Amino acid sequence: MAYTNFTVETDADGIGLVTWDMPGRSMNVFTVGVMDELNAIIDETVADKAIKGVVITSGKSSFSGGADLSMIKSMFSFYQDEKAKDPATAAQKLFDLVGRMTGLFRKLETCGKPWVSAINGTCMGGAFEMSLACHGRVVSNAKGVKIALPEVKVGIFPGAGGTQRVSRLTDAQSALQMMTTGQSLSAARAKAMNLVHQVVEPDQLIPAAKQMIKEGLKPVAPWDERGFKAPGGGIWTPAAAQLWPAAPAILRRETSGNYPAALAILKCVYEGLQVPFDTGLKIEQRYFTQVLQTTEAYSMIRSLFVSMQELGKGARRPAGHPKTELKKVGVVGAGFMGASIAYVTAAAGIFVTLIDRDIEAATKGKTVSEGLVKDSIGKGRFTNDEGAALLSRITPSIDYADLSDADLVIEAVFEDRDVKKAVIEAVEAVLPAGAVFASNTSTLPITGLATNSKRPADFIGIHFFSPVEKMMLTEVILGKETGDRALAVALDYVAAIKKTPIVVNDTRGFFVNRCVLRYMSEAYDMLSEGVPAAMIENAAKMAGMPVGPLALNDEVAIDLSLKILKAAVADLGDKAVDGRHMQLITRLVEGEGRFGRKNSKGFYDYPPKPAKKLLWPGLKDLYPQKKADEIDVNVLKQRFLVTIALEAARTMEDGIVTDPREADVGSILGFGFAPYTGGALSYVDGMGVKAFVGLCETLAEAYGQHFNPTALLRDMAAKGETFYGRFDPYGVKTAA
What we know:
Blueprint: E1 6-10, E2 15-20, H1 32-47, E3 53-58, H2 69-85, H3 87-109, E4 115-119, E5 123-124, H4 126-133, E6 136-140, E7 147-148, H5 162-169, H6 172-181, H7 187-192, E8 198-200, H8 205-214, H9 238-255, H10 260-272, H11 277-292, H12 295-312, E9 328-332, H13 336-347, E10 351-355, H14 359-378, H15 384-392, E11 394-397, E12 408-411, H16 417-428, E13 436-439, H17 446-450, E14 459-463, E15 473-478, H18 484-496, E16 500-505, H19 512-529, H20 533-542, H21 549-556, H22 558-572, H23 579-591, E17 604-605, E18 614-615, H24 633-653, H25 660-671, H26 680-687, H27 689-703, H28 711-719, H29 723-726
Parallel strand pairs: 2-3, 3-4, 4-6, 5-7, 6-8, 9-10, 9-12, 10-11, 12-13, 13-14, 15-16
Antiparallel strand pairs: 1-2, 14-15, 17-18
Helix pairs in contact: 1-3, 2-3, 2-12, 3-4, 3-11, 5-6, 6-10, 9-10, 10-11, 12-25, 13-14, 14-15, 19-21, 19-24, 20-24, 22-23, 24-26, 26-27, 27-28
InterPro entries: 3-OHacyl-CoA_DH_NAD-bd, 3HC_DH_C, 6-PGluconate_DH-like_C_sf, ClpP/crotonase-like_dom_sf, Enoyl-CoA_hydra/iso, FA_oxidation_alpha_subunit, NAD(P)-bd_dom_sf
Pathway: Lipid metabolism; fatty acid beta-oxidation
Domain 3-hydroxyacyl-CoA dehydrogenase C-terminal: 509-606
């Protein structure tokens, strides 16, 4: 029988080789069609008496990325449609739907013939759950191999048998750690956890898998044999008595109870290990059905899975412009930011000319890349030859003429209009026709900088975040005269360096910094109200932020905050800045010499390592302190999330951000806005705009007019709209 996504061959030893190779895709993924074909292949191989066993592998460089986003999206739309038709039966129908993959893998596992998964490259999510249902697992030791069940990162969990099989193959603590964090495992680590049987050289992958069958691999899973016991003895053991009472507390410490899927993993493992395997699968299916009905799962999958992929694949790229294959990029400014931009560019295989005022400064900039390469080699990410090749693509220079054949030039010099003006003029004097000039400015409007350009249509902003090699977001900023071709080139570059872009129109602070400043400003308000600094930091983290606003301000630099406040006053007048904020930051910088982490003194003190940072005791002396039991922590949490969401809404109202996907993805990747919400606008939509407006009004009455809902929000509340409905990124009106 012929298949679209698989080929099936049988060798002289009677071993079937099933090769998964989806046409027109760079990676295999599970779709309804793939599951239909796999089901048919199981039937075919079972019926063929000549086949003694089956090896399943991939025809691509990676095994599989798991489920296709369209299939994930269809589960939510299916439930919403069924709920509208018959609320009483909608959950049962969803339960039956999500059990299909579970049933397929269980069918494979109990088919009576041995199956071996031969894993080459990335094996994620449902693909690894399928592999766990196979009776043998052989993995290549190639550097690119990554094995993971990362579903919790997008709001769901391994719901096709993953929680039951992993916890029956390895100890419960390791199983919980793997699934509640979504961590990737190397081949060696997966073997150490007993999740795979063999790790072999890439060219031995298929032979080793076939050999397992030749040696009499039993077509029975361990848990289907009489007398099976889970590693460590299961739930009712002394070791388990230490693990399970602590596990929920540890999870709450790490997540503040914000992630329903993470808690569901604990429940699935704890309950599942006390019952027969098939009952455990039903327990998992029940919890997966419940999680799929949560706002958190819907919002996280939409933003962190669907929208991120759409934006990464060029959802905002203007049509009609051929893809630019960048051969050479110039970076002007070899400070830490410029040097890091040079590194990620060279890592993408693009040649870089790194320019600074003198060759010593330019060469020093390259040493940043040398340090990053050395670190990557030490961690096994690069070979010595790969590291040397990367460094060979970076050429320090002081001669702007070396940019005469560049496709794109990025300036990353000091945040000073005159300095940037000089660089723009020097670069444009040699830049070839059709090349694009980009500024990495974080504060200066692009339109203003473009007045120094003779070719404003080719002038754009590409705003990176530090550390560049780790931060996945890039803001692409359009000036008033920026042309579509410049935008296309910028997005092609961002795709080449494997970052996620958001496209924003020009304004002070763009999108991310506008929201970040609101976050830090709310902390200034709380300090001035006498809220203890520790409560401020802890409440922010309980709200879902990865780092407290005071710690974040230290990383940004408090003296930079003072410069921003002074610039706002100079440009917009005294009323542009809250006097309490100016007084606080001026006191810290000019009165106390506290600039942030960079001089080891900020809102925190930074003693020599290995000692950890601690809040500066002097903070409590700046304002009269309230008693902790007089403060509602839930209100503190609301204030942080609402003030950021309000600013995101303002950027939509101002036309700075035009696509709600970009506001959501930008808020999460840019500064870690509570990922469980799905992003700043999904937070509003998830709550309901009417309820959000009511919360804003309550907070405005108690804590200041900056919480007043905007005219846009009031209009949306009156009309019962959502951001994804009113600003539909797909061009078709959709429900929330």
